[in-house]
Amino acid sequence: MTSRLLQLHAKSDLIDRPTLCRWMRVVIDHCRRGVAQGQNPFAAAVYAADGKQLSLEFNEVRRTGRPSHHAEVMAIDKACLAIGGFELRDGDWLVTSGEPCPMCAATAASVGIRHIAFGAAKETIEIAGYGQLGSGCEKIFPFFGREANIIGGIEEDDCAKLLVENPAPRSPSPKRSERG
Ligand SMILES: [Zn+2]
């Protein structure tokens, strides 16, 4: 399966594809650790252009019950802690097993990340039941006045397999009386 962003943004001006694949393998391994702990099948890392890993996290929405604890947001939080600031370097990369949702893309853009490599496309995420991601993460960056360099389809088969084999649990709609 070839993602649309692989076709739209087929180049990386700073990092070669084998390096992105190597970074993604690390993210995939971490994603499996999260799944083994009962978490949703998403993981993400922030890498500096020199290859230094600034953070590596998996989705912890289930464990914490917090809807903002997506892997990308957590990885960006940890990267900011690692550098002691809220502005990452222009050459830093967010490497994530699934195409970022608008919240994660906005978090990335807000700290200066514009290079993103992802594995599974949003269509696969939606099929696995993890929500609708809208029109695509690339649409977020212009709101921050930034031009994104987004490359999809990195180790896509393994990232998609994690999603398909670990779909979102289907819960029946709660009755009105159970909501409040
Ligand atoms: Zn997200």
List its traits.
single chain; 180 residues; alpha/beta; 5-stranded mixed beta sheet; 8 helices; 5 strands; globular; disordered C terminus; binds zinc ion
Mind sketching the topology for me?
Elements: H1 4-8, H2 17-36, E1 43-47, E2 53-58, H3 61-64, H4 71-83, E3 93-98, H5 102-110, E4 115-120, H6 122-127, E5 149-151, H7 156-165, H8 176-179
This protein binds zinc ion.
Measured by DSSP, the beta-strand proportion falls in 5-15%
Average pLDDT, all residues = 89
For the largest sheet, list the strands in their spatial order. 2-1-3-4-5
How would a crystallographer describe the biggest sheet?
5 strands, mixed
Residues in helix, %: 25-40%
**Shape estimate:** globular
How many helical stretches? 8
Our Rg estimate from Cα atoms comes to: 16 Å
Helix/strand structural class: alpha/beta
Number of strands: 5
Bound molecules: zinc ion
Q: N- to C-terminal separation?
A: 43 Å
User: Ranges with pLDDT <50 over ≥5 residues?
Assistant: 6-11, 174-180
| Helix-strand pattern | HHEEHHEHEHEHH
